[in-house]
Amino acid sequence: MLVNSARSVLQCLFVQPLHLSFVVIGKCTIISFEILLTNITKRT
Fold first, then answer.
1. What is the dihedral of CA 33, 38, 40, 44, to 10 degrees?
2. N or C, which end of the chain is more exposed by having fewer CB within 10 Å?
3. CA terminus-to-terminus distance, the chain
């Protein structure tokens, strides 16, 4: 599951234009944290 979240974040980063990189990184980190949280809650 970690591989899938990392892959989605990388795809998100590469798809977006470079001049929006900071905004994109912020959004992608939020998305990745949400994915991690959902994975953690599913395990317990």
1. 160
2. C
3. 15
Question: What per-residue string of b and e applies to 26-43 under the rule 16 or more CB within 10 Å gives b?
Answer: eebeeebeebeeeeeeee
Coil, helix or strand for 1? Answer: coil
Quote the pTM value: 0.43
Both tokens of 3, joined, read 């591989």
Angle between helices 2-15 and 21-43 (to 10 degrees): 160
* Chain segment 12-37, per-residue pLDDT in tens: 666 656 556 777 778 888 998 998 99
